[in-house]
Amino acid sequence: MLDAFLKKNVRRFLATREHSNDRDEDAITSMVFTPLRFMTPQAALGCFSAFMALELEPFIKRRLPVRAEILLWPSGMTAPQLLTGQETRCEPDILAKFSFGTGEDLILLGEMKWAMVAEQSLRLQIERERIAVEDKYPKPAHNIFKFAIVKYRGLNKKDVGCDALLTWSHVHSRLRTIGPSTESAIQQWISLVADFLSAAEQLVFEGFDFDCDGLPIDSRALFFNSNTFESFVMADLRFPPRKSAKLFYGSN
Q1: Using 50, 70 and 90 to split pLDDT, how confident is the model at 13?
Q2: Cα 36 to Cα 30, 84, 167, distances in angstroms
Q3: Are strands 230-234 and 87-89 parallel, antiparallel or unpaired?
Q4: Residue 137 in contact with residue 97, Cβ under 8 Å?
Q5: What share of the chain is helix, strand, coil (3-state, %, to 5)?
Q6: What per-residue string of b and e applies to 147-177 under the rule 16 or more CB within 10 Å gives b?
């Protein structure tokens, strides 16, 4: 909360059942990511890898970071508006730069969304932030890894220009499946963030992922998702005798 309190004028946190605004989103973002600023470079990168290991590995290449600079809402960055060309302030939610003993630096550029967001809006925002990062770090020997975490499914990472695009429910699920870590700071962060996302009511039901080909029935289950309602419908299923169909649904 320190970053949100000092930089974004947040004074309290509101759960989703109450009125929410951008400052509430900033408070949640700070609760999750500010602790990384006080960790060793290896621990901080380990926390990012805890929920983006597959996506990050081609950039990390099993290297260990020796230096880290982690900023939330970094000040002083600007980029042109992509529609008008006017130079205005550009403020990524997260900017993390990791230097290794060998090879190129890795810059993580993160955008956090805790409510519905339009695909085009997110794409333009991430592209402006990429331009601002290139201006801040003109050194050519670095890779920029762009990621976004949103509340609802429905967006495609290629369409929004991301290397990784997850929902908060997906992040929570990945954290819950991480085994014990040799780094106690990583393990404590994983446990606290997973519990926090649940307590802060940031998780939504997103359906079940499994292979329907294994079902002992002729018909199939139809799953669907929208920005206002997450559920699935069992369509024209012929269940064996003495078995009944159960419908589950979830909404905010």
Answers
A1: low
A2: 10, 36, 20
A3: unpaired
A4: yes
A5: 35, 20, 40
A6: bbbbbbbebeeeebbbbbbbbbbbbbebbee
Token readout for 57 is: 């590995």
Quick one: tokens of 165? Answer: 């695009």
User: Which tokens belong to 68?
Assistant: 């880290």
Euclidean distance between CA atoms 52 and 105, whole angstroms: 18
Buried b (16+ CB within 10 A) or exposed e, 58-85: ebbeebebeebbbbbbbeebebeeeeee
Rounded CA separation 193/187 (Å): 10
Distance CA 247, CA 231 (A): 9
pLDDT band at 196 (very low <50, low <70, confident <90, very high): confident
Torsion angle, alpha carbons of 183, 184, 186, 192, to 10: 170
SS3 39: coil
Task: Name the token pair of 204.
Answer: 């939504």
- How far is 136 from 81, CA to CA, in rounded Å? 17
Number of alpha carbons in the 13 Å side-chain half-sphere of residue 147: 23
pTM for the complete prediction? 0.73
Alpha helices per DSSP H over the chain: 2-7, 22-33, 41-60, 119-136, 157-160, 168-176, 184-199
Question: Which residue type is seen at 42?
Answer: Q
Residues in the chain: 252
